[in-house]
Amino acid sequence: MFWTDIAHLNRGSDRQRDAYQAMIELDIFCVLGDYDPVLAGTLPLGIETPESDLEVICEAADLDRFDALVEAAYGDLDDFQQRRGEEDGLPSSISNFRYRRFPVQIFAQPRPVSQQRAYRHMVAEGRLLREGGEEAMGAIRQLRLDGLQTETAFGEYFCLEGDPNTVLAEMADAPTEELVQVVVQARMARRNRPPLLRELAHV
After folding, report:
1. Mind spelling out the 3-state secondary structure of the chain?
2. pTM over 0.85
């Protein structure tokens, strides 16, 4: 999937179509066009829940300038706030607000979007879902509805060893054969789980 193209959202679920409309109305790809904006998270993957937010990630070398632009464009929207943090050793800007029925988060750091953790997670998750098929999508969505964070849900369903945040980021560039093996091994592992654990994993 070409992750910079959100047109497919307009052919998806009700929430995906609403997300597409919200992104168009916010004009995010124009307003933030100099910062390589990408919509990340569960909505592009088709595993969204009623609470899924619009998570936009950007590359910005000058965070002060970036923050000023975001505030000028969206500072009058509900619950607008900005803060600074650190992710993977780099300073990061996080802006939050609400638009229509969506929580919105705009994240930026001085690193190409394709190398940021949220993007790499999305790529790995999309590849795993493609190999796992509709069964995997349904199970992951249900785990999300049950309250699990996205990466935790992938770690549970695909039986990933270690911290799923780290493992998924590393899997973004993995050969397809390796991902197929992960899917096959996870399917076997889930079959060998006790009944209660199989039920919790929605297999």
Report:
1. CCCCCCHHHHHCCHHHHHHHHHHHHHCHHHHCHHHCCEEECCCCCCCCCCCCCEEEEEECCCHHHHHHHHHHHHCCCEEEEEEEEEECCEEEEEEEEEECCEEEEEEEECCCHHHCHHHHHHHHHHHHHHHHHHHHHHHHHHHHHCCCCHHHHHHHHCCCCCCHHHHHHHHCCCCHHHHHHHHHHHHHHHHCCCHHHHHHCCC
2. yes
